[in-house]
Design brief:
heterodimer; A: seven-stranded mixed sheet; six-stranded mixed sheet; 18 helices; globular; B: alpha+beta; Uridine Diphospho-n-acetylenolpyruvylglucosamine Reductase, domain 2; Enolase-like, domain 1; 20% strand; binds flavin-adenine dinucleotide
Chain lengths: 780, 329
């Protein structure tokens, strides 16, 4: 999620107050002229080697306990009743039958729920992560179709579910805005994202477009998408004394603990939230109504509670990606150079959130065009609040932009790869900043060669075998490098005789992408210890700092925090080493970690092991905690990950069915730390992109505002047969301005894919589909 | 889910004894019924597990097959006689659901599975005459891309979702039923109803009637047959349109043929008009398209499913083109 503005604001504040002092004090890679992270130069360690996930064995053997697998003594099970109208009031809730049903412990509605503050809306403070700012079970108001109206606790899940079916809720419906037309008629407002307007104007784009020799100008539509992590949202929680203990599934552990605490009027230390394993998040594993309702019901009943949403429950109360209507207009000269690039359009939010899908973010730095007009507007509907979903903005924005580039390539008769390369910018076209590391042209060249792009006919429909027409398409994917402030790391070295182990603790979340493993790899390299000697602590609000597994920024945030904590640790160790050490008299910037100890950087023979330093100081352990330095790199460079996505599809000439037969992603994402987990991230993102291209759509009935396909049977995601061989390659060129030379890789994979598929469909059939998903009825 | 009792029937008479009681339901593999119970759509208070009854596939003297209602879908699709003599049926079964579901699902349960209409499934939030007679139909003007274009009524536009049943409709199967009033047999194409004003009744079976077997008549040209299913993903999705067809040629004329469509109506749709148009005639693409047009002449498309008649016609023409030229994949 775009935290770039938050990060920039933080950095700006720092800059204004202390830039002069800061620069000489922090010779980090993120300051111009600073020293790149020394790990970038190290080529023989674990970084860049395929390392299996450290938690893999636990997961396949059932030893990893997810949020709904914790138990407390005396625990009861929660089930929710959801509203069936979009807007209005609850007139009555007849719960007599439910109360009397077997096993029922509590029926909680707005009548008897404890008084709670509304959760603080995401972004309203650095730790606020409420999906909306609506109060939860506090009054009779209904704001969306699917809103929880009651919670029942019972001795078993089945009893709770059955009791919910016995509730009789009467509503007084009020007019609701559930159609897009109705919302537009109510008004359209400027899109504001993370505090900044979603608008860029450079030159006179409309004027330049009007007078351009070649033009394309079309509207592209993307539907709503639901989150479908394999683990439905769940929490197991208990009040222990006046402390709230929550085993949650969270990608924002500390922030979530803080926001929940505020809802219940607790001090931060009164909420202890753990989340060591998360069965997929993609932006959805945050704070929703269910954790708050479960905590309230636990307080009211005096019993620990497990709440595990059904799949339908996830659809009713966990928001997804909202819809977009995007115009992309490009004006170009005959040689292909762009004169004007316009990317504007509309997205839908709700009256109680502030998350317009920021589909122009990728366009801001994509192509050199002297005249740019980028703008997102929003309108509001009475629906479940929408939220972040893998590459919010870029996933759908690249569909529109990269489809339009393909249309321009057809218009000009220029190869689409070539057209993109011809419009490669020298510096960021909107911010004017230099790129920290942009090697997209290499990715295009390598990808095209490996994919066999030269086999593609520019003439649509030229290849047909039997009923199947084959086509190839491509698109650029892009996702920014972010690093949010607030990350801290705590490193503890512990001595046992001659051996030393390290514990590295970060308040990070592991959603299955391999964060814990990568953190161990990097920490091992940084500390000069074998990976077996490293233990990584994470997913626990008791760990200092706040790190979000969002915006593909977690690896960088952890990396910078570990750098800072390591520097502090070296300071501590030098102080402990004293005058009898070979290191005596050296300062922290003269030594580095290496082979289980510290050594003088330019005189490696002058060294002492951690064990020896600790033994002489008669210490068993030493700890250093430090926050990563401010994300100043974002002030100096335009920083992004890139991909060149190639796709081959077969479209059935009789039935219109599309099957993707090959995909290749050529990625330029800095240095790849762990090829094994990185490949999975890229492939997973691409598969999600295939779903977006061909089948995903949340069906919201616009008469009722109700989601009509709340199940994995009717909400189509790709199944194995839909997923072809996916080839993944990368440039592996380190970014000298980031920790480890790395970029985030979690979200880039989905970007560009839908456009690559749509462009391939055009190449196969001559039909341009501008509305997703590309179902067969759009092709016959 | 409403609490219920469970009993396993050892023989047909025992099943009937329990199954005719009010609130009882027969349980096959449970892949549909248990879902419906979880959703609160079906609320039986007693389940009679009939998976132990009639689990064999028998060769008939006339060359047909008698398939027990308890035979699992996977076992039926894998049976050598089915694969050789009725490949359309094997393909239809394998085109449905997932391997896990087919391993559990029974023949009887497959026949009586209920519609996948979104509004039928939404007990709390939608009106549905099939689920709750007289409540109305939210599908008529709602999401109806998967709905019927033939034989629907103002009360209901739902489709029957089965793949297997489309093949059985084409194959002139017979359904054997045991009931409190004794046993009876009926043509498969008479089992499912059109909705009319009673869409709550999917079939003509009376309460407590138990399907014991499905019988396939011999079909001399059954091997020259196929099943083709069109859907939104490559697997694990219900048919938007499906076609089952078998053809016998006499020189360059069509001597005989069977055609049925899935995804078009409240029942598996035996295409008698198209068959009549083609029988004895030339095997040309134009003839195939004309026959489909005749079959769909009365089609009443809804908001989202106007593509269905055309898709059905194209699919029929492709399938018959292959079957009449010996070019079946
Ligand atoms: C996710 C999913 C996807 C699917 N996709 C497909 C698909 O693509 N194509 C397809 O064709 N099907 C599909 N199915 C449906 C599947 O084929 C049916 O669920 C299955 O065939 C039902 O068989 P069963 O034995 O499990 O029936 P049950 O669920 O046990 O019973 C279904 C009904 O039949 C009744 N019944 C069972 N046996 C008898 C009997 N002997 N006599 C009288 N009544 C009886 C029951 O009372 C109940 O009303 C899918 C199902 C799911 C869950």
């Amino acid at each position: 999620m775009s935290i770039v503005d938050t990060a920039k604001q933080a950095a700006q504040g720092l800059l204004q107050s202390a830039m002069e002092k800061l620069v000489p004090l922090a010779p980090d890679s993120w300051i111009p002229g600073g020293v790149p992270d020394p790990l970038i130069a190290r080529k023989h360690g674990l970084i860049g080697k395929p390392v299996s996930r450290l938690d893999g064995a636990l997961k396949v053997s059932g030893g990893a306990h997810f949020s709904a697998e914790h138990r407390f003594d005396g625990m009861v099970y929660a089930s929710l009743a959801y509203s069936t109208i979009a807007r209005g009031r609850i007139v009555a809730i007849d719960s007599a039958e439910a109360q009397a049903a077997p096993g029922v412990v509590l029926v909680m509605t707005h009548h008897n729920a404890p008084r709670m503050a509304a959760p603080a809306l995401f972004g309203s403070s650095p730790t606020a992560v409420g999906a909306s700012d609506l109060p939860i079970l506090q009054d009779d108001r209904i704001h969306w179709n699917g809103q929880p109206v009651a919670c029942i606790l019972a001795e078993t899940q089945e009893q709770a579910d059955h009791a919910v079916s016995l509730l009789r809720v009467t509503y007084a419906p009020e007019p609701a805005t559930t159609t897009l037309e109705g919302a537009k008629a109510n008004g359209i407002e400027p899109g504001v994202f993370m505090g900044g307007p979603l608008e860029n104007t450079i030159g006179d784009a409309e004027g330049a477009f009007a007078s351009a020799a070649h033009k394309v100008d079309h509207t592209y539509r993307t539907p709503r998408h639901n989150h479908n992590p394999i683990e439905p949202h769940a929490a197991t929680l208990a009040w222990i004394g006046d402390e709230l203990v929550i085993h949650d599934a969270s990608q924002m552990v500390s922030q979530q603990a803080q926001t929940i605490g505020e809802v219940f009027g607790l001090k931060p230390e009164q909420v202890h939230l753990t989340s060591p394993y998360v069965g997929g998040g993609f932006g959805s594993k945050g704070l929703w109504d269910h954790q708050i309702i479960a905590a309230a019901a636990a307080r009211l009943s005096g019993r620990p509670v497990r709440i595990a949403l059904s799949r339908e429950g996830v659809y009713r109360i966990v928001g997804g990606r909202t819809l977009t209507e995007q115009r992309v207009a490009i004006g170009a000269c005959a040689d292909g150079t762009f004169q004007a690039l316009i990317h504007t359009g509309l997205t839908v939010i709700t009256p109680h959130n502030a998350m317009p899908e920021p589909f122009i973010l990728g366009t801001q730095s994509a192509y050199a065009a002297p005249n740019l007009l980028l703008k997102v507007e929003a309108t509001r509907m009475d629906l479940l609040t929408n939220t972040f979903m893998r590459a919010p903005g870029e996933a759908v924005g690249t569909f529109a932009l990269e489809s339009a580039i393909d249309e321009m390539a057809v218009e000009l008769g220029i190869d689409p790869v070539e057209l993109r390369i011809r419009n490669e910018p020298e510096k960021d076209p909107t911010s004017g900043l230099p790129f920290s590391s942009r090697h997209i042209v290499e990715a295009w060249r390598q990808g095209a060669a490996r994919f066999g792009w030269d086999q593609r006919s520019p003439v649509p429909g030229a290849r047909q075998e039997g009923e199947w027409r084959t086509g190839m398409g491509c698109a650029t994917g892009t996702y920014p490098y972010y690093r949010m402030p607030g990350a801290e790391a705590r490193i503890t070295l512990t001595r046992d005789g001659d051996t030393v182990r390290a514990k590295v603790e970060v308040a990070a979340a592991e959603m299955g992408m391999g964060t814990a493993t990568t953190t161990a790899i990097v920490a091992a390299e940084r500390l000069g210890l074998p990976i077996e000697a490293i233990e990584v602590g994470y997913g626990d609000s008791a760990i200092p700092g706040a790190i979000m597994a969002g915006g593909s920024q977690q690896t960088a945030a952890i990396g910078a925090a570990v750098i800072a904590a390591h520097t502090a640790l070296v300071d501590e160790l030098l102080a402990l080493a004293g005058n009898d050490s070979p290191l005596a008299g050296l300062s922290a910037d003269e030594v580095g970690s290496d082979e289980g100890g510290l050594a003088k950087l330019d005189e490696p023979g002058r060294r002492e092991s951690y064990a020896s330093i600790l033994a002489r100081a008669q210490r068993d352990s030493v700890t250093a905690t430090k926050a990563g330095s401010a994300p100043l790199e974002l002030m100096h460079w335009s920083m992004h990950s890139y991909s060149a996505v190639f796709c081959e599809v077969r479209v059935n000439a009789v039935t219109g069915e599309t099957r993707v037969s090959r995909v290749l992603g050529a990625f330029d994402c800095g240095r790849i730390l762990n090829p094994k987990t990185a490949t999975s991230q890229f492939r997973g993102g691409i598969i999600m992109g295939l779903g977006m291209a061909l089948m995903e759509e949340t069906m919201v009935d616009d008469r009722s505002g109700r989601i009509m396909n709340p199940s994995l049977a009717e909400y189509h995601l790709p199944v194995h047969l839909d997923v072809p061989e996916i080839d993944v390659i990368w440039t592996d060129i380190a970014d000298p301005h980031t920790p480890m030379g790395a970029h985030g890789i979690g979200e880039i994979g989905i970007t560009g894919v839908a456009a690559a598929v749509a462009n391939a469909v055009y190449n196969a059939t001559g039909k341009r589909v501008r509305d997703l998903p590309i179902t067969l009825d759009r092709l016959i | 889910m409403t609490p219920f009792d469970y009993a396993r029937a050892g023989e047909v008479a025992e099943a009937l004894r329990h199954g005719t009681a009010p609130g009882a339901a027969y349980l096959g593999g449970g892949t549909n019924l248990v879902d419906l119970m979880r959703e609160g759509i079906a609320r039986p208070d007693r389940l009679i597990d009939v998976t132990g009854l009639s689990t064999t596939i028998e060769e008939r003297a006339d060359g047909g097959l008698l398939i027990g209602a308890g035979v699992r879908n996977t076992a039926l699709a894998e049976h050598p006689a089915v694969r050789q003599r009725y490949p359309m049926l094997a393909r239809a079964i394998l085109a449905g659901a997932s391997a896990q579901i087919r391993n559990m699902a029974t023949v009887g349960g497959n026949l009586l599975q209920r519609t996948r209409c979104f509004y039928f499934y939404d007990v709390d939030g939608a009106r549905c005459n099939k689920r709750e007679p007289g409540s109305g139909c939210d599908a008529q003007d709602g999401f109806n891309r998967i709905h019927a274009v033939l034989g629907a009524s103002d009360a209901c536009v739902a489709t029957h979702p089965s793949d297997m049943c489309v093949a059985l409709a084409a194959l002139d199967a017979t359904v054997h039923v045991a009931g409190p009033q004794g046993s009876r047999s009926l043509p498969f194409t008479d089992l499912h109803r059109l909705p009319g004003d009673r869409p709550d009744q999917d079939t003509v079976l009376a309460a407590g009637e138990l399907i014991t077997a499905v019988e396939l008549a011999p079909l001399s040209f059954g091997a020259n047959a196929t099943y083709r299913k069109m859907r939104d993903r490559a697997s694990y999705a219900f048919a938007l349109i499906s076609v089952a067809a078998a053809v016998e040629m006499d020189g360059d004329r069509i001597a005989d043929l069977r055609i049925a469509f899935g995804g078009v109506a409240h029942k598996p749709w035996r295409a008698t008009k198209a068959e009549a148009a083609l029988r004895g005639g030339p095997a040309t693409q134009q003839a195939f398209l004309d026959a489909a047009a005749a079959e769909f002449a009365d089609a009443r498309p809804l908001r989202d499913n106007a593509f269905k008649p055309a898709l059905a016609g194209r699919a029929l023409a492709a399938v018959l083109g292959a079957l009449t030229t010996g070019d079946v994949a």
